[in-house]
Amino acid sequence: MPSRHSYTMPLLLTFATLAALMLTALALLRWHDARADRQEWLRLAALQPSDPGRFNHAMVAELPEPARRFFQFSIEEGARLWTVAEIDMGGQFSLGSKEQPRYQPMQAWQILAAPHGFVWQLKLPGALPVSGSDAGHWTRFRLLGLVPVARQGGDDDHTRSAFGRYVAEALLWTPAALLPGPGVEWKALSEHSARVTVRHQGLEQAVDLHVDAQGQPLHVQFMRWSNANAERMYREQPFGAVPSQFQPVQGFRVPLRVEAGNHYGTEAYFPFFKAEVTALRFPPPRP
Q1: From CA 212, how far away is CA 196, in angstroms rounded?
Q2: Sign of CA dihedral 94, 241, 201, 120
């Protein structure tokens, strides 16, 4: 008659084999995602112009007055017009709601190359650390470096939502990307606000910029294609950001602090993103 152990050992071996196969599959998935991050980062870095020219006030002389003030505040006369930035940031990122924010300290690294794309790599340390990346083509985050907890993208909804994000961020961190030219249109809204509309490869996004008397951005807001709502349905809804602590970087004046969130301008507004920039650079074009 078979002993109890004769059944137990094969079961344990089976479970161990399945666990090993699962861990291997998760590790391969993480490797695939990291490879995609690197490839997209390199693609965007290669879009840095090799000879971008230099800023002069004549470039914005025909723009609405609030937009003209913005560029004269944000870009020094004679500055090289780099359009691709790499940004290191700390700060806080919320894993909760307005009622229970559950802010977590964050570390993040980003390349921003509007209107072509972006990659944002995030790490949230803690008892259950979260890491992953957000980009124009995907959102991928995991627990403990392995277990997927969010995996979206590859569809028109995600692409449209991401496009809104990086067009708005260009106003803050890569203003040269929004100088007047093909696919970029400015119009006045009031004495202290203007709207930029960006069109690229069938996508279109309008973002409203509000500035003070010197042209310093006070806040940006736009209707973002998003499913950050109770119904989890994609639709246009207000999104906004408030920049502060502007500092000069390679001929640009950029904010080192940015708070942003969904439903901006309404009672439901909740700044889930509180970034503190620790380094921002405009890397030279890759050979």
Answers
A1: 17
A2: negative
Number of neighbours of residue 111 by Cβ within 10 angstroms: 24
pTM of the model: 0.91
Mean pLDDT by 10 residues, the chain (287 residues): 55 65 78 92 96 95 98 98 98 94 96 97 89 92 86 91 97 98 97 98 98 98 94 96 98 98 95 98 85
Buried b (16+ CB within 10 A) or exposed e, 19-41: eeeeeeebeeebeebeebbeebb
At the topology level of CATH, where does 11-281 sit? outer membrane lipoprotein receptor (LolB), chain A (2.50.20)
In one-letter notation, the amino acid at residue 25 is A
Where in the chain are the domains? 11-281
CA Rg value for the chain: 22
Phi, psi of 97 (to 5 degrees): -130, 180
d(CA 22, CA 143): 15
pLDDT of residue 26: 77
Question: What is the biggest distance separating any 2 CA atoms in the chain, rounded to whole angstroms?
Answer: 95
3-state secondary structure 109-122: EEEEECCCEEEEEE
Q: Is 113 exposed, middle or buried (0-12, 13-18, 19+ CB in 10 A)?
A: buried
The DSSP code for 256 is E
Alpha-carbon span 196 to 203, nearest angstrom: 14
Name the residue among 115, 122, 202, 124 with its Cα closest to residue 166.
115
